[in-house]
Task: inverse folding
C-alpha cells in the first residue's frame, strides 16, 4: 500500500514538474512576442545608469538616451512604455530602482490628464517585465485595484494567450536566437528615420483647447514619484516633449500652475520650439511623435536645460 | 458565478471537500447549502421565488399522497363490501381531488414562468398594436433556471400523483431538488426518483483516485468545448448574425455553421462539466446528448439532443394529450370516417404539433423560437415520416442499403443541414431578421471574398489571419466529430486514456490543460459569452 502511495506521489510530482517546464516555456513564447525597450533595460549593467527617463511613447521617441550617453557622457536610459500614465511610471520607477541608482529621473507628462490604458498597451508595456511585485502592483493600480485582472495580466501566458493566432513560431525562434545588441545600444530610444510634415497649432496662434483639471490619481502618482525620488536622493524633473498634437495651451497653463504651486521642476518644450529648432516639415514621424532628427534636437535642448538647472 | 470563472472552481473544490468531510447522512445538506450559495451569487430574490415554488409543490405533493393513501385505506377496508360502481366513483373522486392539487402547482409554476419570461413580450406587443399602456415588466429579472426548475417541480408532483414516487416529507429536500446547483442553469431535467436517492443516500461513498481522474478528464473536456471551441468560434457566429447585412453567400453560410458548432460545443460542454462534477461526488446526472449529428432522421436527432427536455415533454405533455378523452374521441371518430391509419396519425400529429409549439415557446418569447425549434421541427419530422416510402424507393434505386455507412453519412449530413437552417431562427433577433439573413445566403457571387469579409470586418473581434481561423474551425469540428464517433462506437475515451502508459497520459493531460490556457476564450481581450442556454 505504501509503495502505491509513494509511486502515485512520485507520478504527481513528475506531472507538476512537467507542467512547470511547459508553462515557463509557453510563458517565454508569449512574452517575447514584442521587442520592447523593457527587455533591453534588464541587459544594462547594474548601477550603471545615471539618468532614467520615463513616460509614454512621446518620451522614447523624443529623448535619445544613446546620444546622451555617448555624446554627453551621461549614462541614460528611456524606461518608457506605450501610453504610460503616471501611475505606471511610479511602478516602473520602483522596478528600475531595484537595479539602478540614477542621479536624475525625468518624467514626460503627456498622460497627466485622464487617458485610458488599452489592453494592447498593457501587453506591449509588460510583456518582457519579470514577474515582480512591482509589476503586479502596477497592474492592480491600472485596474483600479482589481486583483483578478491584475493577476491575469501579470503572467504573460494568461495576458497574451489570445494572440495565439498571430504567433509565428519561426519568427519567434529567430528573434530569440538573434543578437539584440543593436537594440540594447539604443537604450530604450526608438530610432525612426521617416518623416511626415505636421501642423503645429501653437505656431499658428491656435491650440488653446478646453481647461482640464489634473485628475486626483495623477496627482497622487506625482506625489508618490516625488517621495520615492526624495527617499533615494534622486533629482526629479518633469517635462513635456515638443509634441503639441495631444497638448493644448490651456493644458500647459494648468500643469505649470500646479507644478509651480507644488514645488516641482517642470518645463514645457512647446514654449521653446524655435530654440530647439523644431521643423514641422522634417522632424516628426507622425503628429504624435518626433523622428530621430527631431529627437536629437530635443535631446540637445534637454541636456542644455538640465545643465542650466544644475541638474547635469 | 459563471461556470468558467476561477471562483466557480474554488466553489466546486470546497463543495466536494465538504461533501466528503460531512457524515453520509448529512451530505445532502452540504449540497443544499452549496446550491443556495450558488443561486444567491446570481440573485437573492430569485432564491425566495424558487423556495416558495418548491414549498407549494412540497405541500401539494403531501396532500396528493394523503388523498391517494386515503383512497387505498378505504379500498382495503371496503373491498368486499363496496360495489364496483362505488369503488370506481371513489377512485374517480380521489383522482379528481389529486388533479386539483396538480393543477394548482402547474398554475403557480407556469404562471410565474409566464410572468417572468413571456408577459413582457406579449404586453409590449399589445401596447404596440393597440397603443395601450400595459405594464411591461421591464424591471423584472428572469430568475435563474426558472424554465428548468418549474418543469422539474411539475414533473415531481405529477409523479407523486401517478404513484411513481413517494412524496418527500422534508421540505428542504424538495428545495434541493429544485435548486440543485449542477442542473439549475441549463438542465438536465432530473426526475425526482432518479436524482434524490443519489443526493440523499445514507451509505458512505468514497472517491477513488481513478474515478477522480476520470471526472477531471470529463470536466476538462467540457471546458475545452466551451472555452476553446464554443467561445472562440462564437465570435464568428456573433459577428455574422449581428451584422448579417454586411455579408452574403459563403459568409452567411460560415456564420450558420459557426453557430451550429458553437451551440453544440457550448451546451454539450456545459453538460460534460456538470456531469464530471457530479461524478466527483458519485452523482450520476442524466445524459443530455448522444452524438446528435450522427442521427438518421429528425426524430432520432431529438432523441439524441437535449434528451431530458424531450423525455420530460413526452412523459408529461405529449402522452397525456394523446391519452386524453378528447384525443381518444378524435381517434375513434377519425378512424370511423377516414380509416384506421388516418385515425391514428391525425391525433398523433396534432399532439406533436402542440408538443413542438410548446418546445419552441419554452426556448423563448418570440415567433423565431416557436418556429425555429418548434413548428419547423414538427414539419421536418412529419414530412420525414410521410416521405419515407419515397426515400426508401430512392435509396433502393441508388443501391443504398438500410444501415449502410454511405446511407448513414447522407442521412447525418441531411439532418445536420436541416438543423443548421433551423438554428438561424433560434439565434436571430427576430423571425424577420432570420428570413432576411437566409435570403442573403443566396445573394452575391459565391467566392472566397465572402468568407474573407467576415475575418476582416471592422468589428475587430477577429484578430489574426483568416486562414488560421478557418484551420482552427476545421480542427475544432474534426475534434468534435472524432470524439463523437468514438462515443458512437462505444469507445470510452477516458478509460482508454487511463489505460495508456504514464508518459502518454501526461502528454494528454498537459495537452488538455495548455489547450484551455492558450486557446481558451477568457480575459480582458476576449468578449466572453455566457452559456447559451443560461438565458433560459
Result:
Amino acid at each position: 500500500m505504501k509503495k502505491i502511495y509513494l509511486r502515485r506521489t512520485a507520478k504527481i510530482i513528475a506531472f507538476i514538474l512537467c507542467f512547470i517546464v511547459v508553462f515557463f516555456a509557453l510563458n517565454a513564447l508569449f512574452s517575447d512576442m514584442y521587442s520592447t525597450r523593457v527587455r533591453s533595460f534588464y541587459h544594462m549593467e547594474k548601477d550603471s545608469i545615471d539618468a532614467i527617463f520615463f513616460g509614454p511613447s512621446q518620451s522614447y521617441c523624443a529623448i535619445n538616451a544613446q546620444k546622451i550617453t555617448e555624446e554627453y557622457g551621461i549614462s541614460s536610459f528611456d524606461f518608457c512604455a506605450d501610453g504610460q500614465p503616471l501611475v505606471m511610471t511610479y511602478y516602473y520607477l520602483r522596478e528600475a530602482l531595484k537595479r539602478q541608482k540614477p542621479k536624475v529621473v525625468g518624467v514626460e507628462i503627456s498622460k497627466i490628464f485622464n487617458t485610458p490604458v488599452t489592453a494592447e498597451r498593457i501587453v506591449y508595456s509588460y510583456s518582457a517585465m519579470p514577474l515582480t511585485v512591482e509589476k503586479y502592483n502596477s497592474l492592480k493600480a491600472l485596474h483600479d485595484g482589481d486583483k483578478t485582472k491584475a493577476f491575469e495580466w501579470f503572467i504573460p501566458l494568461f495576458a497574451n494567450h489570445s494572440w495565439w493566432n498571430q504567433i509565428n513560431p519561426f519568427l519567434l525562434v529567430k528573434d530569440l536566437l538573434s543578437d539584440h545588441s543593436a537594440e540594447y545600444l539604443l537604450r530604450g530610444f526608438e530610432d525612426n528615420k521617416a518623416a511626415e510634415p505636421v501642423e503645429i497649432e501653437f505656431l499658428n496662434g491656435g491650440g488653446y483647447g478646453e481647461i482640464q483639471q489634473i485628475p486626483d490619481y495623477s496627482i497622487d502618482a506625482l506625489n508618490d514619484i516625488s517621495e520615492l525620488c526624495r527617499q533615494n536622493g534622486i533629482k526629479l524633473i518633469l517635462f513635456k516633449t515638443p509634441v503639441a498634437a495631444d497638448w493644448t495651451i490651456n493644458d500647459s497653463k494648468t500643469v505649470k500652475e500646479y507644478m509651480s504651486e507644488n514645488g516641482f521642476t517642470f518645463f514645457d518644450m512647446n514654449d521653446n520650439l524655435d530654440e530647439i529648432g523644431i521643423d514641422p516639415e522634417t522632424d516628426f514621424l507622425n503628429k504624435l511623435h518626433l523622428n530621430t532628427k527631431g529627437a536629437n534636437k530635443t535631446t540637445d535642448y534637454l541636456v542644455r536645460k538640465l545643465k542650466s538647472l544644475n541638474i547635469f | 458565478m459563471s461556470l468558467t470563472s476561477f471562483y466557480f472552481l474554488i466553489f466546486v473544490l470546497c463543495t466536494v471537500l465538504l461533501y466528503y468531510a460531512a457524515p453520509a447522512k448529512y451530505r445532502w445538506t452540504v449540497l443544499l447549502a452549496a446550491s443556495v450559495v450558488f443561486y444567491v451569487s446570481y440573485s437573492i430574490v430569485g432564491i425566495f421565488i424558487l423556495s416558495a415554488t418548491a414549498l407549494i409543490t412540497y405541500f401539494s405533493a403531501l396532500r396528493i399522497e394523503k388523498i391517494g393513501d386515503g383512497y387505498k385505506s378505504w379500498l382495503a377496508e371496503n373491498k368486499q363490501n363496496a360495489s364496483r360502481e362505488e369503488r370506481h366513483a371513489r377512485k374517480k373522486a380521489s383522482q379528481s381531488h389529486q388533479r386539483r392539487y396538480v393543477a394548482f402547482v402547474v398554475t403557480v409554476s407556469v404562471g410565474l414562468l409566464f410572468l417572468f419570461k413571456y408577459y413582457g413580450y406579449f404586453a409590449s406587443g399589445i401596447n404596440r398594436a393597440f397603443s395601450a399602456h400595459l405594464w411591461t415588466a421591464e424591471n423584472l429579472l428572469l430568475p435563474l433556471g426558472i424554465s428548468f426548475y418549474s418543469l422539474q417541480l411539475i414533473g415531481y408532483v405529477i409523479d407523486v400523483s401517478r404513484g411513481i414516487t413517494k412524496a418527500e416529507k422534508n421540505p428542504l429536500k424538495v428545495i434541493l431538488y429544485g435548486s440543485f446547483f449542477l442542473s439549475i442553469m441549463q438542465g438536465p431535467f432530473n426526475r425526482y426518483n432518479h436524482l434524490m436517492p443519489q443526493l440523499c443516500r445514507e451509505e458512505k461513498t468514497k472517491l477513488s483516485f481513478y474515478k477522480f481522474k476520470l471526472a477531471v478528464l470529463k470536466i476538462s473536456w467540457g471546458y475545452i468545448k466551451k472555452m476553446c471551441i464554443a467561445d472562440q468560434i462564437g465570435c464568428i457566429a456573433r459577428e455574422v448574425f449581428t451584422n448579417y447585412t454586411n455579408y452574403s453567400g459563403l459568409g452567411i453560410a460560415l456564420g450558420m455553421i459557426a453557430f451550429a458548432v458553437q451551440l453544440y460545443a457550448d451546451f454539450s460542454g456545459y453538460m460534460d462539466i456538470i456531469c464530471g462534477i457530479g461524478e466527483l461526488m458519485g452523482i450520476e446526472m442524466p445524459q443530455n446528448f448522444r452524438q446528435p449529428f450522427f442521427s438518421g432522421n429528425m426524430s432520432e436527432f431529438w432523441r439524441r439532443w437535449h434528451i431530458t427536455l424531450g423525455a420530460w415533454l413526452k412523459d408529461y405533455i405529449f402522452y397525456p394529450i394523446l391519452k386524453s378523452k378528447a384525443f381518444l374521441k378524435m381517434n375513434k371518430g377519425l378512424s370511423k370516417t377516414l380509416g384506421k391509419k388516418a385515425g391514428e396519425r391525425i391525433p398523433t400529429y396534432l399532439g406533436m404539433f402542440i408538443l413542438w409549439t410548446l418546445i419552441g415557446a419554452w426556448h423563448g418569447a418570440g415567433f423565431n423560437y416557436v418556429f425555429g425549434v418548434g413548428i419547423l421541427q414538427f414539419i421536418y419530422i412529419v414530412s420525414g415520416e410521410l416521405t419515407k416510402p419515397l426515400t426508401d424507393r430512392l435509396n433502393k434505386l441508388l443501391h443504398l442499403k438500410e444501415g449502410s455507412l454511405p446511407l448513414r453519412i447522407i442521412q447525418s449530413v441531411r439532418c445536420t443541414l436541416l438543423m443548421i437552417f433551423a438554428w438561424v431562427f433560434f439565434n436571430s433577433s427576430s423571425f424577420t431578421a432570420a428570413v432576411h439573413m437566409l435570403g442573403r445566403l443566396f445573394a452575391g457571387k459565391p467566392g472566397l471574398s465572402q468568407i474573407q469579409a467576415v475575418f476582416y470586418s471592422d468589428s475587430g473581434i477577429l484578430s489574426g489571419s483568416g486562414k488560421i481561423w478557418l484551420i482552427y474551425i476545421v480542427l475544432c469540428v474534426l475534434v468534435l466529430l472524432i470524439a463523437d464517433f468514438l462515443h458512437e462506437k462505444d469507445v470510452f475515451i477516458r478509460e482508454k486514456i487511463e489505460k495508456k502508459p504514464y508518459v502518454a497520459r501526461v502528454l494528454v493531460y498537459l495537452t488538455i490543460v495548455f489547450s484551455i490556457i492558450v486557446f481558451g476564450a477568457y480575459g480582458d481581450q476576449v468578449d466572453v459569452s455566457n452559456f447559451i442556454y443560461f438565458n433560459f
User: Anything to note?
Assistant: The mean pLDDT of chain A is 86.
